[in-house]
Amino acid sequence: MEYLADPANADSEFHGVMEKAWAEQKSETDHSLTAVQGLAEIWNKVEERKPQIRSSFSLLKYAAAIVVIISAALGWYTFKNAQQPIPIDVAFLSKTTQKGEKVKLILPDSSVVYLGTGSKLTWPSHFAKGKLRSIRLEGEAFFEVKHDTKSPFIVHSGQMQTRVLGTSFNIYAYPKDGTFSVAVRTGKVGVSENRDGKLKHLSLLTPGMKLLYHLKAHDYTVSNERITEVNAWIKNSFAFKDIALPNIFKSLERYYNVHFELKTNKLNQCRFNATFTNKSISDVMEEIRVMSGKKIKYKIDTANKTITVWGEGCQ
């Protein structure tokens, strides 16, 4: 021990390491692979520096030094490993809206999401820099994504995957409707199909472009849309372009929190182009009646929030 305590007698390289490691040594010995590898390195250094001839007394002192160095080295590696950050599982948050409800959310990266009625959004409690910013959507939402070229923003919605770096766009993805859509307001958006674990690129969209993806047929179409209509629903404006009446009713059900009862299949063939802005549900129904040439009839049960619809059809 005196040999080690005297820097003049001890190897200067080992003395500094040993002194620090000995002070920080823990009572338990570390037998991990890292510690064993570190010990092997020390032994190699010892073998390289060991003189060819030693007196018995010198060898005893050197052996004592080796014992302490080994113990100190194991303690040092234990201390070093204790300083490594412990992986923390990322928590996931979610928000579900009810019929007639829509909310504004701020994600951990400061991106803004307007979540539509009857929708669910799931996202991690934080995004790691340089990693994918992945979230999941069921329903409708308009995104204003913060630009980050090193961390692509990905929205998973059923079999459809939307990837951006920083832009604003709308996703409509209600599973029961059978058709999903992605419409771009600003920037560029890449849309892919994730089918049976295989990712297939479908299209790159720019402002004013809209992709319709058909769930059963697994095909899609791309069309143009007015930029002002991409997120019109946020301001209570709904635009329908050549949409079948049953599908219009599905959207109205969600946003007005009502239930439609169709008394005849003749109405399934009715298709309309219409825009409703800040209209009450009674005003909307009256406009639909007029557009049908007054062939569609309806009755609103306010107490039960039910609208019964019948008529001769639209042919």
Question: What is the topology?
Answer:
Layout (H helix, E strand, L loop, with lengths): L1 H4 L6 H13 L8 H17 L6 H27 L9 E5 L6 E4 L5 E4 L4 E5 L8 E12 L8 E5 L2 E5 L3 E6 L5 E8 L2 E7 L2 E8 L3 E6 L4 E6 L12 E8 H12 L2 E4 L8 E7 L3 H11 L4 E6 L4 E6 L4
Parallel strand pairs: 5-6, 15-18
Antiparallel strand pairs: 1-4, 2-3, 3-5, 4-5, 5-8, 6-7, 7-10, 8-9, 9-12, 10-11, 12-13, 14-16, 17-18
Helix pairs in contact: 2-4, 3-4
Q: How many angstroms separate the termini?
A: 104 Å
Structural class: alpha+beta
The fraction of residues in strands falls at 35-45%
- The count of DSSP E runs of length 2 or more, i.e. the number of strands, is 18
Q: pLDDT below 50 for ≥5 consecutive residues: which ranges?
A: 1-10, 27-33, 82-87
Describe this structure in a few short sentences.
The chain is of the alpha+beta class.
Structure description:
This protein has 315 residues and is an alpha+beta fold. It has 3 domains: 2-82, no CATH class; 92-229, Jelly Rolls (Sandwich); 236-311, Phage tail protein beta-alpha-beta fold, CATH 3.55.50. Helices cover 27% and strands 36% of the residues. The protein has 6 helices and 18 strands. The protein has helices spanning 2-5, 12-24, 33-49, 56-82, 245-256, 281-291, and strands at 92-96, 103-106, 112-115, 120-124, 133-144, 153-157, 160-164, 168-173, 179-186, 189-195, 198-205, 209-214, 219-224, 237-244, 259-262, 271-277, 296-301, 306-311. β17 and β18 (306-311) form a beta hairpin. α2 (12-24) packs across α4. The relative contact order is 0.07.
